[in-house]
C-alpha cells in the first residue's frame, strides 16, 4: 500500500526479489530488505550476475548495502515467471574469464582508435571532463 | 541449578535516585544517542566510580568462586544495607547461605512482592516474568540459551544497588510452566560473566523481547500524559496471549528457530556488559577502568533535559534541547543482533522506569519517549502488531524540522496484532498543511477505515520467509514520513512535479464526476500558501548565564571558531582578487537576469493556473518583470540603450552566452537588434573569450531570428559592424560563429533583394560596397583559416553572382564549397 499516492516509494518493494543495476555496471539480484530516505538499499542473499554475450554467471555475495546514489535502476523479479531460456548459465570461473577477455579486446580497440586519431591530430575529449555549467 | 527469588523487598532505597539514574543510563545506553541527537544528564562521577570499584572487586571474587555472584543479594539477605565496600567481604561467605536460602525465600518474597508498593518494582517483576514467559514458551531460546542466560535484572533500582545478580541459573526456561504463579523467578546467568560487568538495570534480551510485544498496547495512548499509567496497566494476563501469538509472528523468532541463537557470552546484561566480560582481561589487582576518567556516554557539558511538559506542548514551534541520559557503557554496541533498535529497548526499558517518584531524573527519559511517541503518533495512530515504536532518529535534533509533522498514517503492514487496541486518531490539523489537500483527505480516510480492517494481508508468504520484516513497521513509517516531508511544499511549481500532477489529475477526474453543479472550474494552486517555519539550530543557552557553554559534543554542537572575514592588503592578492571579483560580479549579474528570465518564461504557466482574481496581479507583475528584463542589459537605469560593455561582460561567461541566447527572444525588437549589433561589433573579443567554451553557436538561432526581422538599413549596419575595423573580417571568418553570422546576413540581404525588387538595400551603395569587401576577403584568405559555418544558406551563390564575375564566382564557390543551385 502506498502511503503517498502520486509518488514512487520503495516501501512496497520490501522483501521482494529485485534486480538492481548499479552505476558501475554491476547487476545485483537479491531480496530487498531495507531502505531509507536516500534509497540506500539493503539486499539479502545477493547474487552478482555477470553477462557476457549470451552467457551469464552468478556469484553469490551475501548481504549488500548499496548507496542510493549508485543505483541506476531497480526492478522486481517475478519469481513465478519462467527464467529466460536464451541465456546460458555458466560457472563463475568461466564467466569471469569471458569478462576479462571482453575487457581486454575493448581496451585494445580503444587504444588503436586513440592512436589513429592522434596520428591525424584529433582528439576526442573524455565525457567525464565536460560539464554543462 | 536453582532459582532465586527477587530480593527487591530487602533492598534499601538509600540510593534510590542514583540507582534509578544509573539504571536509566544503562537501559538507555544501547542506542546511538549521538546519532539520534539525544542529550543527556550529567553523570555523577562519584557514583560511577563506586560502581566500577565494586565491579572490579567482584571481578576477582567471581573468578574465584566460579560463579557470578550478585553482591548485594547476599547483603540484602543479611539485611545489611551497607555501601559497596562491605559487599565484597560478605559475598564469599554468604554464597552457600544464599543458595540455601533460595527456596524458602522464593515463597516469602513472592508474598512480599504483593505488598510492594513501588510501581517500578512491580513493573520490573512484571517485565521479567513476562520475559521469562517468552523464554519458556520458545523452545529455541530455551534450548540454546540454557547454558548462557543473560542476567535478568529484577528491578532496575535494585540492580544498581546490588550490582548484577549473577547467580547460577536454574534450569532456565523449561522448568516452570506457570510463569504467573512465580513472577518472581528470575534467571541468572551462569559463570563469571559479571566479572567485568558494570551494574546495570538492563533488561535482558528476553525482557526486551517481551516488553517489545506488550508495549503496543501503550502506543494506543500516545500523546497523552497517562501513557505511563497505561503501560503499567497491562497485567501479566493480557500480556501473555499477545506474546504467544507474537512468537510466531516475530521474524526474529522465526530466524531464531531456524538458525538458533547465536552463542552469547554469559553475561548479566544485555549490552556491553556482555562484551565487557569478553574484553576484560583476567582479573587483576586494579581494574583497567578504574583510574581512568569515567566514560561518559554523554559528554560532559551536555545540558540537562527540559521538563516534560515543556517539550510536549511546544513540540512544533520550540525545538527544545531535550536530552536523554545515556548510560556509561555506551561505547559498547549491543551484542545481539536482534532487530531491536536501541530505541526500542530504551522505550520499553523506560516504561517501567518512568513511574515512581523520581521526577527530576525521570522526566528527561520520559521526554524522549514521549517525543518518540509524539512523532510516531503523527504517522501511525494505530497500534501495530510489530515491535515497539522506534524512536525517530535524531529525535531531538530532528524535531525542529518537523515543522509540519505528518498526518497519521494508517498502515497494515507487518503481522497485525490481534489485540483490539483503540484506534488512536490524532488530529491531522495544522501539521500537514503543506501536503496536498487531496492527500490529506486520503490519509484521513484511511485513518478512519483503519478500525475495521485488521485482516492479515499477504501475511502468509511473508511469514514463510524467515528474513521478512527485517524492516520494522516503524522504520517503514519513518521513511514514509520523510518522503511526505519532502512532498510538502509551498510552491507547487518548484517542487515535486509528479506528485502535484497526480493530484491535479485526480482533482480533474473528480470534478468531471461531480460535474454539473460546479460551474466554476478553478484550478487553483495546489497547496495552500503557508509560511514555512524556519528551523535553525539554536544551541542551548542558560538564562542569566554569561556567555555560552564551553563544551561541545555531538549532541549539542557549538560554534568553535568565530570566523571573521578580513581582507588581505597584499598587492598581488589584490590584483588577483580583483579579477575574481569581476568574475563573481559577472556571474552574479547573470544569475539575477536569469531569475528574471525564468519568471517571465514561467508566467504563462502560472497564468493559466491562477484563479481569476489573481490574474490581474500576475499580469502586472509580469509586465514589471519584462520591463526589468529589458533594462537589464542597459548600462544605467535611465539610459535606454543597450550597453555594449554589459553585453560583452555577460557573454564572457559561458552561462552568460546561454542567457543571452535565451533572452533575445524576449526583448523588444529594438533591443534585440541592438544586442545583435553589439555581438557583431565585438565578435573578435567574444571569439577570443569563447575559445575554451566554444559555445557561441548557441547564439545562432536567436540571432538569425532577429536578422530575419531586421530592416534593410539595419541589416546593412549590421554587416558594417561585422566588418568593423581593418582585419576584423579576417577574425570573423576564422570563427565558426562569425562565418555563420556573415552568411546569415548575406542570405537575408539576398532574400530581401530577390523578394522585393524595390527594397532599399540597393539605395545607397553601402550594401554593395560591403558585399564587395566581403567577397574580396573571402577570396583572399587562405582556405585553412576559413571556418566552416554551421550551415550554408542556399542563396549565397545568387547573391555573389550579382556582384562578381564568373571567374571569381567559381573560385569562391570552390573555396566555400557552396553548391550551385541556381545554375
TrEMBL record, chain A:
<keyword id="KW-0508">mRNA splicing</keyword>
<dbReference type="Pfam" id="PF01423">
    <property type="entry name" value="LSM"/>
</dbReference>
<keyword id="KW-0597">Phosphoprotein</keyword>
<dbReference type="GO" id="GO:1990726">
    <property type="term" value="C:Lsm1-7-Pat1 complex"/>
</dbReference>
<keyword id="KW-0507">mRNA processing</keyword>
<keyword id="KW-0963">Cytoplasm</keyword>
<keyword id="KW-0687">Ribonucleoprotein</keyword>
<comment type="subunit">
    <text>Interacts with SLBP; interaction with SLBP occurs when histone mRNA is being rapidly degraded during the S phase. LSm subunits form a heteromer with a donut shape.</text>
</comment>
<comment type="similarity">
    <text>Belongs to the snRNP Sm proteins family.</text>
</comment>
<dbReference type="GO" id="GO:0003729">
    <property type="term" value="F:mRNA binding"/>
</dbReference>
<protein>
    <recommendedName>
        <fullName>U6 snRNA-associated Sm-like protein LSm1</fullName>
    </recommendedName>
</protein>
<dbReference type="InterPro" id="IPR044642">
    <property type="entry name" value="PTHR15588"/>
</dbReference>
<dbReference type="GO" id="GO:0000932">
    <property type="term" value="C:P-body"/>
</dbReference>
<dbReference type="GO" id="GO:0006397">
    <property type="term" value="P:mRNA processing"/>
</dbReference>
<comment type="function">
    <text>Probably involved with other LSm subunits in the general process of degradation of mRNAs.</text>
</comment>
<dbReference type="GO" id="GO:1990904">
    <property type="term" value="C:ribonucleoprotein complex"/>
</dbReference>
<dbReference type="InterPro" id="IPR010920">
    <property type="entry name" value="LSM_dom_sf"/>
</dbReference>
<dbReference type="GO" id="GO:0008380">
    <property type="term" value="P:RNA splicing"/>
</dbReference>
<feature type="domain" description="Sm">
    <location>
        <begin position="5"/>
        <end position="80"/>
    </location>
</feature>
<dbReference type="InterPro" id="IPR001163">
    <property type="entry name" value="Sm_dom_euk/arc"/>
</dbReference>
<dbReference type="InterPro" id="IPR034104">
    <property type="entry name" value="Lsm1"/>
</dbReference>
<keyword id="KW-0694">RNA-binding</keyword>
From TrEMBL, chain B:
<feature type="region of interest" description="Disordered">
    <location>
        <begin position="63"/>
        <end position="123"/>
    </location>
</feature>
<protein>
    <recommendedName>
        <fullName>Protein PAT1 homolog 1</fullName>
    </recommendedName>
</protein>
<feature type="compositionally biased region" description="Polar residues">
    <location>
        <begin position="77"/>
        <end position="93"/>
    </location>
</feature>
<feature type="region of interest" description="Disordered">
    <location>
        <begin position="171"/>
        <end position="208"/>
    </location>
</feature>
<keyword id="KW-0539">Nucleus</keyword>
<feature type="compositionally biased region" description="Basic and acidic residues">
    <location>
        <begin position="451"/>
        <end position="465"/>
    </location>
</feature>
<dbReference type="InterPro" id="IPR019167">
    <property type="entry name" value="PAT1_dom"/>
</dbReference>
<dbReference type="GO" id="GO:0016605">
    <property type="term" value="C:PML body"/>
</dbReference>
<dbReference type="InterPro" id="IPR039900">
    <property type="entry name" value="Pat1-like"/>
</dbReference>
<keyword id="KW-0694">RNA-binding</keyword>
<feature type="region of interest" description="Disordered">
    <location>
        <begin position="259"/>
        <end position="307"/>
    </location>
</feature>
<keyword id="KW-0963">Cytoplasm</keyword>
<comment type="similarity">
    <text>Belongs to the PAT1 family.</text>
</comment>
<feature type="compositionally biased region" description="Low complexity">
    <location>
        <begin position="95"/>
        <end position="110"/>
    </location>
</feature>
<feature type="domain" description="mRNA decay factor PAT1">
    <location>
        <begin position="542"/>
        <end position="686"/>
    </location>
</feature>
<keyword id="KW-0597">Phosphoprotein</keyword>
<feature type="compositionally biased region" description="Low complexity">
    <location>
        <begin position="286"/>
        <end position="295"/>
    </location>
</feature>
<feature type="compositionally biased region" description="Acidic residues">
    <location>
        <begin position="7"/>
        <end position="22"/>
    </location>
</feature>
<dbReference type="GO" id="GO:0033962">
    <property type="term" value="P:P-body assembly"/>
</dbReference>
<dbReference type="GO" id="GO:0016607">
    <property type="term" value="C:nuclear speck"/>
</dbReference>
<dbReference type="GO" id="GO:0000290">
    <property type="term" value="P:deadenylation-dependent decapping of nuclear-transcribed mRNA"/>
</dbReference>
<feature type="region of interest" description="Disordered">
    <location>
        <begin position="448"/>
        <end position="467"/>
    </location>
</feature>
